[in-house]
Structure formats: structure tokens, C-alpha cells
Design goal:
The chain is built from 3 helices and 7 strands, in the order αββββαβαββ. The protein has 124 residues and is of the alpha/beta class.
Length: 124
């Protein structure tokens, strides 16, 4: 059994790397699940407020979501009725969203009695 060891066995290394790759890909999938893809606008002065109760998301296709649940302009009133009017409402609008559509959504929310409405942006 005096074999000369002139090669490195890389099979265990490949096995470990494949297992780590599967773990990373699975974890990354779970982290992004449930988020609506929106390309937010950028601003130099962006707040770090974390006590958000209501998140309205407006996609570039014009779809509207309330806390990740799809709503229409007509069902927005009934969907927001269960929340207190003192709640902070954050609007996440895609940066290519038409300004008119954004103003319609904010106007509708303010018309329902919510006074704390803000726009979420990405800090530059």
C-alpha cells in the first residue's frame, strides 16, 4: 500500500459546493417570495421609517396592490375601510408610472380620510 499520492480527489469538494449552491438558491428564493417587483424612484433625502401599516404598490402596468393583495380602484375603499384613518399609508410606485395614475391613487386614499400619505423612494 505504498501508493504515491500525486492527484487530489476533488469529488468531495464538488459535492460540498453543490450542496452550498442549493442552499443559497433556496434561501434567495424564499427571501424574494411575496414581493411585488417595483423599480422605485431615487432621492437624496429618503427617510428610514419602519412603522408602516398600509403599503400601496402601483406597478408600471398600472396594477394596484394593498399590502401585497391585488385590488382595483373600485375595491380599494372596502379594502382600506378596516384600517384606522390615522394609519400611515406608503405608496410604492414604479418610477415609470404615469403621474396622472399616481395622483389618482393618492387622491383616492386621501378622499377616504387617510392624511398621512407618503411616497417610498430609494436613497441615492
Amino acid at each position: 500500500m505504498d501508493r504515491e499520492l500525486n492527484q487530489i480527489n476533488v469529488i468531495p469538494l464538488v459535492d460540498v459546493m453543490l450542496v452550498l449552491l442549493v442552499i443559497v438558491l433556496t434561501t434567495a428564493t424564499f427571501i424574494t417570495t411575496g414581493q411585488i417587483p417595483v423599480d422605485l424612484a431615487k432621492a437624496k433625502e429618503a427617510g428610514d421609517r419602519r412603522d408602516v401599516l398600509l403599503i400601496l404598490t402601483l406597478t408600471k402596468e398600472g396594477q394596484l396592490f394593498l399590502n401585497e393583495q391585488s385590488v382595483t380602484k373600485e375595491t380599494l375603499k372596502t379594502a382600506m375601510a378596516s384600517y384606522p384613518h390615522e394609519s400611515l399609508v406608503v405608496v410604492r410606485a414604479d418610477r415609470v408610472t404615469m403621474l396622472e395614475r399616481f395622483v389618482e391613487v393618492v387622491d383616492e386614499v386621501r378622499g377616504l380620510g387617510f392624511r398621512q400619505v407618503s411616497l417610498e423612494v430609494v436613497k441615492m
